[in-house]
Amino acid sequence: MDILLLFRFWSILRREKPAVFLGYTVKPNIYGSLAARSLGIPVINNIAGLGAVFIKKGWLTALVRFLYGLALKKSKRIFFQNKDDLAHFVDVGVVKKDAVDLLPGSGVDLEKFFLAPYPGNTRPRFLLVARMLWDKGVGEFVEAAKIIQARGLSADFCLLGFLDAKNPTAISRAQMQKWVDDGSVQYLGSSDDVRSEIAVADCVVLPSYREGTPRSLLEAASMGRPIITTDAVGCREVVDDSMNGLLCRVKDPIDLADKIQMMIEMSPGQRRTLGERGRQKVEREFDEKIVIEKYLNAIERASR
Fold first, then answer.
1. Tens digits of residue pLDDT in 215-242
2. Where does 137-193 show beta strands of DSSP type E?
3. Cα–Cα distance between 177 and 173 in angstroms, integer?
4. How far is the C-alpha of 240 from the C-alpha of 262, rounded, in Å?
C-alpha cells in the first residue's frame, strides 16, 4: 500500500509541477518528499509531532526514523513544532542542524479565537478537546473526574472530539457510552467550530502523552481559558506552570485530579487571570502570522 501511495504522490506532482512541495504529517513528509525529490521539486517539511509511534520504542520506531532520514536528507527546510522533537531528530542524525527551524505549532488566528468573557458557571466546567484516543490522555481525564467526584467536589467534565475507530489507540463507542452512563463525563460529540464550547468552559484540559504543539490548547489560551496539561513534549510549550495554567505528570490520573482540584478551589477571578495571561502568551508567541511569515520566507529561498 505504501508503494502505491508513493506512486500516487509521484503521479500528482509530475502532473501538477509545483514550484515547491510542502509536506505535513508522517506519510506526506516521507513519501511525498521522496516523490518530489525524484522529480527535482524543492521540499519543505513540517514535523507536526512524532505521535504514538515514537511513544513506544521498537522496530516500527526504528523503521520510521530510517524513512524520515531517507526522505528529509535533501529538504530545503524542515520545521518542527517543539524544541524536543527538533533536538531529537538532530541528535540521532535524522536531519542536519543547519536545515531545521522551529515553528510555534500551527499558530492560531487571534481574531477568530477572540478573548471571550469568562463564564459564570455555578459548577466549574472542565473540557477536553481532542480525538478520542487513549494517547490523548482521555482515560486519565475520566479517572481524574471519578477521583474528584469521590472527593465530594462539584464539577462538570466534558469531552469534545470524534471517535476515530480506525486509529489503533481509539476509544470505542461502547467504552465512551459506559463512561457517560456511569456519570463520569459528558460526551459532546464532535464539532467543526469549538469556540462555543471553549467559551462556556472554565478550564481546558489535555493530559496527552506527546504532541507537536496542540492546537486545542492554543485555541483555548487565545480565548482566555486556563489550561491543565501534561509536562510532556509539545504540551509544556503552551503552559507556563502556575502562570496561565497547571502542568501535571504524564499518565498520572491522581496528579491530574490534584491539579483539577487546585483549579476548582481557585476563585473565578483567579482562573480568569490565568486565562488572560494565556491570551497574552499566545499573542507574543503563537500568532499564526509568525508561522505564515516563516513559510513564505522558506518558500522564497527554496524557489531560487
1. 999 999 999 999 999 999 999 999 999 9
2. 156-160, 186-187
3. 6
4. 16
Cell 486519565, located at residue: 140
Instruction: Give all domains of the chain, ordered by start, each with its CATH number.
Output: 2-105+288-303 (3.40.50.2000), 125-285 (3.40.50.2000)
Q: Residue 220 corresponds to which amino acid?
A: A
Mind listing the pLDDT tens digit for each residue in 131-159?
A: 999 999 999 999 999 999 999 999 999 99
Q: Is the dihedral of CA 132, 136, 137, 141 positive or negative?
A: negative
Question: What does the alpha-carbon distance between residue 106 and residue 79 come to, in Å, rounded to a whole number?
Answer: 11
Report which DSSP code applies to 22.
E
Phi, psi angle pair for 205, to nearest 5°: -120, 135
User: What is the Cβ-side half-sphere exposure of residue 58, based on CA atoms within 13 angstroms?
Assistant: 5
Total-model pTM: 0.90
